[in-house]
TrEMBL record, chain A:
Species for this entry: Zobellella aerophila
Lineage: Bacteria, Pseudomonadati, Pseudomonadota, Gammaproteobacteria, Aeromonadales
Positions of transmembrane segments: 12-40, 52-70, 76-97, 118-135
Family annotation (InterPro entries): Sulf_transp_TsuA/YedE (IPR007272)
Protein name: YeeE/YedE family protein
Localization annotation: Cell inner membrane
Membrane topology qualifier: Multi-pass membrane protein
Family, as annotated: Belongs to the TsuA/YedE (TC 9.B.102) family.
Length: 136, 142
């Protein structure tokens, strides 16, 4: 194992902003900032407005940063369409089956001491590590 | 008011995803490459988020029982760790390790206007839909 590209400060501050966003949504509106749950809820029939607003806020922020040139756009040009298709499908199936993704389990769940989220987070990180190791 | 909170929370989230590097699939794959060239940065993204979220919520909860808009704070799910949870997390982890993209960054990356993001998001939506069709009790909530 060698450590590369470590960017501790931007990672920490960026993470704090994510935590602040999740905290705001929970203490102000009593809603969980789990992105997969928010997206799934958009396909439902009730309580869609705030979810749409959240997605709009997220998109506006990244649109501003990318299109103004303040942040570099990560290029996906090297990724095969078939790989993206399968990856997306697995992420969709897995997060709906497991009731959460990196944000819902990893931040909102763990941050409230949920044992389910602790288990889920350990498992999806381990599965991610195993997948990366196998695909090399 | 609820919409404004949602908008602001989403914007903070998006800003954090970009600044932290979590939006960059290469960085995510570097974090998961523990046995190769490892980039530990994303551990600090999670640590930073939890360092704000967990104590913030704890302080709020001890002073107020409810959220600002007046409803109860959502309860933590019963600590039942079942096969569905573990299977779902495994499948999600496998997909995450393939492309280095999870749902939040997928939405944020849509702003980069690359067609590859569209492929990922459509496939993810198909996955949501498929599980919804196959499960009766699938509420999709944490």
């Amino acid at each position: 194992m060698t450590v590369v590209n470590f960017t501790p400060w931007s990672a920490l501050f960026g993470g704090m902003l994510i935590g602040l966003g999740a905290l705001l949504l929970m203490v102000a509106a009593g809603r969980v900032a789990g992105i997969s749950g928010i997206l799934i809820g958009l396909g439902g029939h009730s309580d869609r407005g705030w979810r749409l607003a959240f997605v709009a806020g997220l998109l506006s922020a990244t649109l501003l940063l990318f299109q103004s040139g303040m942040a570099e756009v990560p290029s996906l040009a090297g990724m095969a369409p078939g790989k993206l298709l399968l990856a997306g499908l697995l992420v969709g199936i897995g997060t709906r089956l497991g009731n959460g993704c990196t944000s819902g389990h990893g931040i909102c769940g763990l941050g409230r001491g949920s044992r389910r989220s602790m288990a889920a987070t350990l498992v999806f990180i381990a599965a991610g590590i195993a997948t990366v190791a196998m695909l090399k | 008011m609820l919409y404004l909170i949602g908008l602001l929370s989403g914007a903070l989230f998006g800003l954090g995803l970009v600044l932290s590097g979590m939006i960059n699939p290469a960085k995510v794959l570097g974090f998961l490459d523990v046995f190769g060239a490892w980039d530990p940065s994303l551990a600090l993204v999670m640590a930073g988020a939890l360092a704000v979220f967990a104590p913030g919520l704890w302080f709020w909860r001890t002073k107020h029982g409810q959220c600002v808009l007046g409803t109860d704070l959502p309860k933590v799910a019963a600590p039942v760790i079942d096969g569905r949870l573990l299977l779902g997390a495994s499948i999600f982890g496998a997909g995450w390790g393939m492309a280095g993209i999870c749902p939040g960054p997928a939405i944020g990356l849509a702003a980069s206007l690359q067609w590859q993001v569209g492929v990922f998001i459509l496939a993810m939506g198909a996955g949501f839909w498929l599980v919804g069709r196959l499960t009766v009790a699938g509420s999709g909530k944490l």
